[in-house]
Please model this.
Amino acid sequence: MRASAQQRREQSARAIAELIEQLSRSLLNRSSARRLNAAQWTALRYLGSANESARQIGAFAKFHFTTPSSASQTISSLVRKGMVSKTGAADGRRWTLELTSKGRRMLKDDPIIDLSKVILSLPDAKLFILAETMQMLVQAMHQKR
Model:
């Protein structure tokens, strides 16, 4: 008996989801080999590109779709590792976060760089379709939270 078109779509969707999981696992393994977890890498990347007014725990929490408490724990772990420094504002209520030289060096060894190079090797049409598709998937999964 032949699979229906809907069954083939479901099988394809499942296969794609499993490939995304494999890709994620590969990145996580490379990340943890450098003794950082996924949230810590996200924080380093965020701080490496955010302007000064956005380098605060609340802004990072919003960007990372997490609570300020969880974001604070991630940042604190990077402070303990010597990769991030915190500078208090004059009012004492906010901290501005800054990558240290150790944090900037770590970003140069970011596992996502290798994946970026592979993606960059795609033809333009496929690269743009992949970007649009991944954005849609991420948004849909965040809405399910």
In short: Helices lie at 5-33, 38-49, 57-63, 68-80, 101-108, 112-120, 124-143. The beta strands are 84-88, 95-99. The mean pLDDT is 91.
